[in-house]
Amino acid sequence: MTITTRVSICLPTYDRPDLLIRCIESCLAQTHSNIEIVIGDDSPDTHTEQLIAQRFARNARIVYRRNVPALGQARNVASLFERATGDKILLIHDDDFLLDHCIERLLAQWSVHPDIEVAFGNQYETDADGRIDYTSSRRMNHAYHRTPQAAGMQPLAGRTGIVQMFPNNGWLADAALVKRIGYGDGDNEQFAVCCDFVFGVRLCLAARGVCFVDDYVSCYRKTEFSVSAATRQTPSASSLAAWHFLEALALPPELEPARRLALRRLAPIVVSLLARNRQARAGLNLALTHLYAYRFGLSMRLYYHLLMIWKSAWLARRPAPLPVPLFDAEEQVVDVTRTRRIP
Fold first, then answer.
1. Domain interval for residue 294
2. Is residue 341 in some structural domain?
3. What is the pLDDT of residues 192-241, one digit of tens each?
4. Of 182, 172, 294, 168, nearest in space to 238 by CA
5. How many Å apart are CA 224 and CA 209, to the nearest integer?
């Protein structure tokens, strides 16, 4: 791959102009300069549009469009993919940003592995102000199976998406593959709350080859304004949607261990969600049919969840509804879908 390779950076945004500017600047700072930045703006007013015009009116690499009416996350991203004109596509969300060598580092993998169609690397995790938390970043990447030992071509490309090794953004892929998979159509609408995860699974399942680069290439900013944060303790939680998607996914036999590994992570979270939302019977059935997720009873988490289920059933029989206490300690787990914002 050379400088002649054109990369389309797809950037959906919603009413966060200050963070968007930081993201755009990180895109413009790329050491690989043959790029276009395709922006889809779902903001309810023209403030973002005006700011883009003031800051970047003379920059031909920025292709901006305000969506009226707003498209919502899935259709916004889908429209960005359709508008992209590059040979490769990279997705980055408005509150995240790229390291300046991101595209160059990922693009170089096609020279080493000509048959790949997707490349991705590690993510830094930052606070709301963009300050990197190095300890949390190492923990996050390890939780998503991004380790030095896993670097290079992935033996089973589909496994990369299923076990959530593939990141929510900051990846690079052949534009033809991305456009063929699409984003936000069919079942992606059904699983809109975890659409990043659904797309990642489908992309990796369809890819001829996937390569993991053991290098930090992008930054994931933790905010309280994401879909996953807003729905975390509700029946609309992204983890629950991801569970249903994985359960229904048709897979070849060689990828069944990957599904089991992914469900092992999700099962206790879903049990907790069901208990919180007064679905005690469903929570109990799920816990008992997925005991492997609790080390067959050797995990104290199982007994904590059984207590939650008992309390849920007891509260459900009360004549007047009472608030279910929040079990904050239980929820100190990695956000399993990394689903982003934009209504």
1. 238-331
2. no
3. 788 899 999 999 999 999 999 999 999 999 876 554 444 444 455 788 88
4. 168
5. 35
